[in-house]
Amino acid sequence: MRNIIENVLVSLDGVYDGAAIVRFGDYRDDEAYMRDSLDQALSCSAMLIGRATYELFIMNWPIRTDPWADRINAMPKYVFSSTLEKADWNNTTIIRGDVGAYVTKLKQQEGHDLLV
Asked: Where is the Bacterial bifunctional deaminase-reductase C-terminal domain positioned along the sequence (predicted)?
C-alpha cells in the first residue's frame, strides 16, 4: 500500500503565508531544500491537492523551468474540489465526491507514494 507524504514549506517566524506564497521564489536559493524536495518529488507517483492549492500552483509551476518544476508538471495530479470546473494543467484530474474513498483507492494501487 502506498503512503501519503506531505511536503510543507514553513518559516520559523510565520512570515511565509498569504501573499508570500504566491511569490514562489525566496526559497529557491536554498540548495539543500531544492535537492531534498526534488528527491521527494521523484520518489512519489502522484500529487494530491485541493482547489485553492491548485489555483496557486497553476500560476507558477507550468511556467517554471527547473528540475523540480519538470517533475511536478509531469506527474499525475489529483485535485479534490466540488467547485473547480476545469483543470488546464497537464496530467490533472478533478475528483468530486467521497475524498476518503478515492484516496483509499489510490493508496491501494501499484506505484510509489502520493505527495501532498
From this structure: 4-115
Sign of CA dihedral 12, 3, 75, 18: negative
Per residue of the chain (116 residues), what is the pLDDT tens digit?
898 988 776 666 655 555 545 444 555 566 777 777 788 888 899 999 999 989 988 988 899 888 888 999 999 999 999 999 999 999 999 999 999 999 999 999 999 999 88
Looking at the 3D structure of the chain, how many domains does it have?
1
For 74, residues 6+ apart whose C-beta sits below 8 A from its C-beta are 90, 91
Grid cell of 51 as nine digits: 482547489
DSSP conformational letter for 13:
T
Parent domain of 67: 4-115
